[in-house]
Automatic annotation (TrEMBL):
<dbReference type="GO" id="GO:0035999">
    <property type="term" value="P:tetrahydrofolate interconversion"/>
</dbReference>
<comment type="similarity">
    <text>Belongs to the tetrahydrofolate dehydrogenase/cyclohydrolase family.</text>
</comment>
<keyword id="KW-0554">One-carbon metabolism</keyword>
<comment type="subunit">
    <text>Homodimer.</text>
</comment>
<dbReference type="GO" id="GO:0006164">
    <property type="term" value="P:purine nucleotide biosynthetic process"/>
</dbReference>
<dbReference type="GO" id="GO:0005829">
    <property type="term" value="C:cytosol"/>
</dbReference>
<dbReference type="GO" id="GO:0004488">
    <property type="term" value="F:methylenetetrahydrofolate dehydrogenase (NADP+) activity"/>
</dbReference>
<dbReference type="Pfam" id="PF02882">
    <property type="entry name" value="THF_DHG_CYH_C"/>
</dbReference>
<keyword id="KW-0658">Purine biosynthesis</keyword>
<keyword id="KW-0368">Histidine biosynthesis</keyword>
<protein>
    <recommendedName>
        <fullName>Bifunctional protein FolD</fullName>
        <ecNumber>1.5.1.5</ecNumber>
        <ecNumber>3.5.4.9</ecNumber>
    </recommendedName>
</protein>
<feature type="domain" description="Tetrahydrofolate dehydrogenase/cyclohydrolase catalytic">
    <location>
        <begin position="6"/>
        <end position="121"/>
    </location>
</feature>
<feature type="binding site">
    <location>
        <begin position="166"/>
        <end position="168"/>
    </location>
    <ligand>
        <name>NADP(+)</name>
    </ligand>
</feature>
<comment type="pathway">
    <text>One-carbon metabolism; tetrahydrofolate interconversion.</text>
</comment>
<keyword id="KW-0511">Multifunctional enzyme</keyword>
<keyword id="KW-0028">Amino-acid biosynthesis</keyword>
<dbReference type="InterPro" id="IPR036291">
    <property type="entry name" value="NAD(P)-bd_dom_sf"/>
</dbReference>
């Protein structure tokens, strides 16, 4: 292996420490506790784990965590009522509705009902538009985490060729916007892209967010590239269940200059950025200086 392993776990711990220190100052200087409300509809096992971890890490940072677990049969109107009451609650500074929602609920309608100032996931159409037009936005947590790792590793990203694999609203599109904002030359590839391998080979920075186990191998990677693997895929190998990314780590690490592992790369950054966004939403709501 020649690549440096980018330690997202350690970086996320540092982000959470900074958030906790800021929360402590808010409490001592202003008697304010930032609050995050997380709404889970139904019993998707993976979502339940994510929500539990979010609640735990929120409390560990000294913030208030409000968890709302609703039955899978909850109607769209009932969910919208809950969002309206959270929008009006002064103790709630951030609202996250865990996706995916059951099929009978229109996710876009629910996400767009969240007060954009409390939209710590950055999925409200106002925040999407603000990001796309280079204005101050609430930025989606996973791409924000990727950008933080990249900036930490590279410094300035000016002029680098970045290829984003995947064009979802949650990861691919906001990631591309963030890289563009940092002056990269950005290509977005997806399932209809032709000659994916050669597109990826042109990249100084590869962001893989497709949800296909180890689709990107070392043969696709330009020597010296930085590889950020967003994928989380549950596979069975030799009778054992394990998590792998969208990148084949061992072969990619032979040619890349730096690479994130799965697990322990992007994953921990997502919740750390959610906490940072909640803190920022709280400071903005109260007109206090924002954390840097
Ligand atoms: P989506 O399924 O919403 O999007 C996947 C994207 O990948 C689509 O744009 C799709 O193209 C593209 N794609 C699928 N197959 C191929 C292929 N064979 N070649 C090229 N492009 C392809 O997934 P998400 O964006 O939500 O998530 C992507 C991955 O990231 C998943 O593994 C997910 O678990 C993980 N993830 C990890 C997070 C973390 O915290 N680390 C957070 C969020 C997601 P098209 O649009 O044409 O269909």
């Amino acid at each position: 292996m020649v690549a440096v392993k980018i330690d997202g776990k350690a970086f996320a711990e540092a982000v959470r420490r900074d958030v906790a220190a800021h929360v402590e100052r808010l409490q001592s200087d202003h008697s304010i506790t930032p609050g995050l409300a997380v709404v889970l509809v139904g019993e998707d096992p993976a979502s339940e784990v994510y929500v539990r971890n979010k609640g735990k890490q929120t409390r560990e940072c000294g913030m208030a965590s409000f968890e709302h677990k609703l039955e899978a049969t909850t109607s769209e109107a009932q969910l919208l009522d809950l969002v309206t009451s959270l929008n009006a609650d002064p103790d709630v500074h951030g609202i996250l509705v865990q996706l995916p929602l059951p099929a009978h609920i229109d996710s876009d309608k629910v996400l767009n009902a969240i007060d954009p100032a409390k939209d710590v996931d950055g999925f409200h159409v106002s925040n999407v538009g603000l990001l796309a037009t280079g204005q101050k936005a609430m930025v989606p947590c996973t791409p924000l985490g990727c950008l933080m790792l990249l900036r930490h590793h590279h410094g300035k990203l000016d002029g680098l060729n970045a290829v984003v694999l995947g064009r979802s609203n949650i990861v691919g599109k906001p990631m591309a916007q963030l890289l563009l904002r940092d002056n990269c030359t950005v290509t977005i590839a997806h399932s209809r892209s032709r000659d994916l391998e050669n597109i990826v080979r042109s990249a100084d920075i590869v962001i893989a967010a497709v949800g296909r186990p180890e689709i990107v191998t070392g043969a696709w990677i330009k020597s010296g590239a930085t590889v950020i693997d967003v994928g989380i895929n549950r596979v069975e190998r030799d009778g054992r269940k394990r998590l792998v990314g969208d990148v084949h780590f061992d072969t990619a690490a032979e040619v890349a200059a730096a690479i994130t592992p799965v697990p322990g790369g992007v994953g921990p950054m997502t919740i750390a950025c959610l906490l940072a966004n909640t803190l920022m939403a709280c400071c903005r709501a109260l007109g206090l200086p924002e954390p840097s």
